[in-house]
Design brief:
Helix content is 28%, strand content 24%. The chain is α/β, with parallel strands linked by helices. The chain has a 6-stranded mixed β-sheet with strand order 5-4-3-2-1-14. A 6-stranded mixed β-sheet has the order 6-7-8-9-12-13, covered by helices on one side. Helix 4 links the parallel strand 7 and strand 8. The N and C termini lie far apart (39 Å).
């Protein structure tokens, strides 16, 4: 078993307030015997549509800046791994990176993932403020878990989930800020369950709530069943990930072994 706390928060535009909320939730997760806490996308701050790219850039920090440094101290004191998100400085003028940072239970940065797929869809254009990352982050080992990191819109690209799985991930973590809209809740629920089922893995998806976001942070198991749905409430829930179920599912439903890579490779789309 691996116990993970899924945090659902409503980030404000005040970075200091959001940091204090995160630190409080880390301590609560520790008190509930969690081993890891996963926060949603945009933990550092909510960026309203009225905020300019330059203003957002002024909010951004490096991965060794005060926001992550404070969370590292809290994680170390609690002996709890933390998956947090920040706006990260980048070299492109008036752009920031949408970055997930894995802090281990010793307070060390174990992995950094920068969002690959920017949300330029449904009338949004994240590329007006963000610069896309350019690589996957290798799965992070924690006990028997191998955690692959994604962020929000990445969930709509099954290739990414499959590549992380092929690199060894058996748990996918997708911090998100899923925007409200027609059928958006249905899309969210369907894709989380699909990514879990098609890869025989757990999907842990903490989401923002309030502002423009839907909430409904979820965990789906390797058979595509919803284990947790936090609805529209702030707070956290502890979930036990049964790694025996994961192994049994992959034995009974060997999707990864049954792939026909010999055929896939002959088609042009597989090479693009």
């Amino acid at each position: 078993m691996s116990k993970i706390a899924v945090a659902q928060v409503k980030s404000s535009t005040n970075k200091s307030e959001n940091l204090k909320i995160a630190q409080t939730l880390i301590k609560e997760a520790k008190n509930k015997q969690a081993e890891i806490i996963a926060f949603p996308e945009f933990l550092m701050a909510f960026s309203p549509a009225s905020q300019s790219a330059e203003e957002l850039r002024q909010t951004a920090e490096s991965t060794d800046g005060p926001f992550i440094s404070s969370l590292r101290e809290t994680a170390k004191a609690a002996a709890l791994a933390v998956i947090a998100t920040i706006y990260e400085n980048c070299s492109v003028p008036n752009r920031v990176l949408d970055t997930a940072v894995w802090i281990d239970a010793g307070g060390n940065i174990a992995s950094v993932y920068r969002k690959l797929h920017l949300y330029d869809a449904f009338g949004f254009k994240e590329s007006d403020k963000f610069h896309a990352g350019d690589n996957l982050a290798p799965p992070v080992k924690s006990g028997e878990g191998r955690f692959g990191m994604m962020i929000c819109y990445d969930l709509r690209f099954p290739e990414m989930a499959r590549m992380l799985t092929l690199e060894g991930a058996n748990i996918l973590v997708a911090p998100s800020g899923w925007v409200q809209g027609d059928l958006k809740l249905e899309h969210w629920q369907t894709m989380i369950r699909a990514r879990a089922l098609e890869n025989g893995c757990y999907v842990v998806a903490p989401d923002q709530v309030g502002n423009i976001y839907i909430g409904h942070s979820m965990v789906a198991d390797p058979l595509g069943r919803t284990l947790v749905d936090l609805g529209e409430n702030e707070g956290l829930e502890i979930v036990e990930l049964d790694l025996n179920l994961l192994r049994e599912t992959r034995e009974k439903l060997p999707l990864l072994q049954n792939r026909r890579t010999d055929v896939y490779a002959r088609h042009a789309w597989a090479k693009r």
